[in-house]
Amino acid sequence: MPSILLILPCISLIVPSISLILLCISLIVPSIPLILPCISLIVPSIPLILPCISLIVPCISLIVPCI
Description:
Shape: flat
Structural class: mainly alpha
Number of helices: 1
Oligomer: single chain
Strand content: under 5%
Number of strands: 0
Helix content: over 70%
Radius of gyration: 24 Å
């Protein structure tokens, strides 16, 4: 019986958080059409980013011994 008394406050905390999560989802969903064009802009730039990363990695390996 005492365990039920412990569970009740937890449930009372979880329920409002579910309503917050639903609210967040309802805010995120309409913004998906806005995010898609951004992704379509980011994807072509990935091949440009890759050479930069390949340059940064050796630099890091040079910096680490200095630290």
